[in-house]
Each structure stands twice: as structure tokens, then as C-alpha cells.
Design goal:
- α2 crosses α6.
- A five-stranded parallel β-sheet has the order 3-2-1-4-5, sandwiched between helices.
- The mean pLDDT is 96.
- It has one domain: Rossmann fold (3-Layer(aba) Sandwich).
- Helices cover 41% and strands 20% of the residues.
- It has six helices and five strands.
- Bound molecules: adenosine-5'-diphosphate.
- Adenosine-5'-diphosphate binds next to α1 and β4.
Length: 157
């Protein structure tokens, strides 16, 4: 039997309930999902790599088929390294679609790797990490937008 392994790449700065929704709905589609936390030296993050990974690890600690890793460089190179044949992405709106379409087609052309898209749930479609960061920066309440593990870890730090 072939092992269906997908990576779910992103910045996850921080992970939100929108990301959680996509991962939870993808669990039955794949034998293993590696949540791949991108680290780009030129990009400034609100939460550092260790924090972003810890938030995700705590969120999914009860799920044996979900792993968390960090990567830099091309997503398709990371797929090859971990022997994943699929890239999982979420779609929220037409802007996401236009952006993702070009990347997915390029990735398939270069590597044969398929991108699997799940449409956001109506209840989480408005959530984005950038809005969460803005609210957090201004001491607003993000508890309805992020998993409980993020709130617990933030309040202990
Ligand atoms: P990136 O910087 O690569 O866009 P993100 O961490 O913002 O990384 O997002 C990772 C993936 O999660 C993307 O496919 C994005 O479309 C998806 N995503 C983010 N928020 C939501 C949401 N609210 N509903 C569904 N998918 C989402």
C-alpha cells in the first residue's frame, strides 16, 4: 500500500482556527500530514520559528498522523526530502485562488507534485494570521481566532 503523505506549508504566524479547520478535514485524506513551517531569512515574523512550531505541536498533540517540521527553500524540494507527493493548501477567496493557481501549476510542472485544495469552512473563512497579529499587537482578544494551545502558551510566556 502506498503511503499518502502531504505537507501543509505556511508561515503559521501564528496558527489560527482557519488552519486547524483545514488540517482536521484533511486528516482522513492522507496517511500523514507534515505541517511545514516556512522560515525565510528575509521575512520578519511576529513569532519566531520555535514559537510557531510549539503552537502547532501543542494544538495537534493528540493526532499521531500529524507531524511538524520547519523548512526553508523551495516547497517542492522539501516535499522531495520528506517524500511527500502532495501539497495541501486552503482557499478562502478569489485572491487566494489566483495566487495559489500559478504556484500549484508551476510546482506540478517542475516536480509532478499535486496540490490539494480544501475550501475554507464558512465559520473560519474570515480568519487570517495577519489580522490576528494586528489584534495581538494592540492587546486585543484573539481567543476566538486561534486554538486554545496558542492562548495557553502566550499567557505563560
Ligand atoms: P502563507 O504565508 O504560505 O500564505 P499562511 O500561514 O498564511 O501561509 O497559510 C497557510 C495555508 O493556510 C494557506 O494555504 C492559506 O490559504 C491557508 N489558510 C489560512 N487561513 C485560512 C482560513 N481561514 N481558512 C482556510 N485556509 C486558510
Amino acid at each position: 500500500m502506498t503511503n499518502r503523505r502531504a505537507i501543509f506549508p505556511g508561515s503559521f504566524d501564528p496558527i489560527t482556527l482557519g488552519h486547524v479547520d483545514i488540517v482536521e478535514r484533511a486528516i482522513d485524506l492522507f496517511d500523514e500530514i507534515i505541517i511545514a513551517v516556512g522560515t525565510n531569512a528575509d521575512k520578519r515574523y511576529r513569532f519566531d520559528e520555535n514559537q510557531r512550531m510549539l503552537f502547532i505541536r501543542e494544538t495537534f498533540k493528540a493526532y499521531p498522523s500529524i507531524k511538524v517540521m520547519s523548512y526553508n527553500g523551495l516547497t517542492i524540494d522539501f516535499c522531495k526530502k520528506v517524500e511527500a507527493d502532495y501539497i495541501l493548501r486552503g482557499l478562502r477567496n478569489p485572491a487566494d485562488f489566483e495566487f495559489e493557481k500559478a504556484i500549484a501549476q508551476t510546482n506540478r510542472k517542475l516536480s509532478g507534485i499535486e496540490t490539494v485544495f480544501l475550501l475554507t469552512s464558512a465559520s473560519t473563512s474570515y480568519i487570517s494570521s495577519s489580522i490576528v497579529r494586528d489584534i495581538y499587537l494592540h492587546q486585543g482578544d484573539i481567543s476566538s481566532l486561534v486554538p486554545k494551545a496558542v492562548m495557553d502558551l502566550i499567557s505563560n510566556s
